[in-house]
């Protein structure tokens, strides 16, 4: 592959590369580039929104460059203020390192982590924990307060009178300094990280290093258009069960299908247009769900999630999602989805075990039962859902919130169409 072809591949899907000519120059130099991504382990899960950036980094690896994943175990104690409307509660170093262990395991599904020439893992506590106050002063002298308040989230909070802690101003400098010990050539991030990545360029210059390229990728929202979050049930974890990944992708609302194809796959624009037009919403959903479910069921996802990968799963591209068959793991996930959609109860589901002490004479209030099983947040929510006919017991719609359930044998609880829990009495 020529430098120009590599450059064309890398910039595909990017929102902004600052500056583009520097990236092309670095590629022409023939040196192995150091490509950095910083992750603050504030939560233990990685979702397909993170995968947008990680898959681009995989492309750098496939081209022979080295990815350095920096776990922000130290900066997580500050809390990244990007997009925040209020100060994030700080985490302890122990909490961040516990979450980091899960992160590293999960990125191994996307990045090549077994080759030291193409992957390195670092923790920024290595250099930030012992950074002297003299260096902190040096760093903070690089920007003015006015420049900090140009940042959209800080500007909004300042205008609205929402407190901004001084330690939050330190975050961009800390993230920027991460690029110094590793002599970063390219730093990756979502569009919400633009300010931080640009600060990194200035920090490197202050320490006599060549400025890194800021490589910005788009942010993927949930399939309903809201921020991707577990609380909205639009969060798709890359290590979830295939049936869950399939189900959640089938729930992506029609207006967001094209965005998901563009950001989560390597299909060409004309192929995306083809499947949307000829497959229709149903066929397009199936192609998306099959392609990604099959990919994330692998220990290491394929380098390219394209038409060839889709066909390797045993499907015909020309059918545009309206055929049967396919790889067993995808076929089973799809079968479960349609079984549930048609009112069936799946064989496999999470199991909750209750102690006899939680019952009164072998009985338990149905409201308490759903709450203990984790399908409702409170008895009040369970009552409201029963009144809306949104809960089922062994397939039967519940109508009486005062019902008491006898647990002489396992029972299946259901919320909506696709959330099931089997309750067993110990």
TrEMBL record:
Main location: cytoplasm
Enzyme Commission code(s) on record: 6.1.1.1
Residue sites binding ATP per the record: 230
Record's subcellular location: Cytoplasm
Sequence motif 'HIGH' region, residues: 41-50
PROSITE patterns: S4
Short motif ('KMSKS' region): ranges: 227-231
GO molecular function terms listed in the Swiss-Prot or TrEMBL record: ATP binding; RNA binding; tyrosine-tRNA ligase activity
The entry's keywords: Aminoacyl-tRNA synthetase, ATP-binding, Cytoplasm, Ligase, Nucleotide-binding, Protein biosynthesis, RNA-binding
GO biological process: tyrosyl-tRNA aminoacylation
GO cellular component terms given for this protein: cytosol
Catalytic reaction list: tRNA(Tyr) + L-tyrosine + ATP = L-tyrosyl-tRNA(Tyr) + AMP + diphosphate + H(+)
Pfam families, A to Z: tRNA-synt_1b (PF00579)
CDD domains per UniProt: S4, TyrRS_core
Family, per entry: Belongs to the class-I aminoacyl-tRNA synthetase family. TyrS type 2 subfamily.
Free-text function comment from the UniProt entry: Catalyzes the attachment of tyrosine to tRNA(Tyr) in a two-step reaction: tyrosine is first activated by ATP to form Tyr-AMP and then transferred to the acceptor end of tRNA(Tyr).
HAMAP family, per the entry: Tyr_tRNA_synth_type2
Assembly and oligomerization: Homodimer.
PANTHER family: TYROSINE--TRNA LIGASE, TYROSYL-TRNA SYNTHETASE
Protein name: Tyrosine--tRNA ligase
Organism: Meiothermus ruber (strain ATCC 35948 / DSM 1279 / VKM B-1258 / 21) (Thermus ruber)
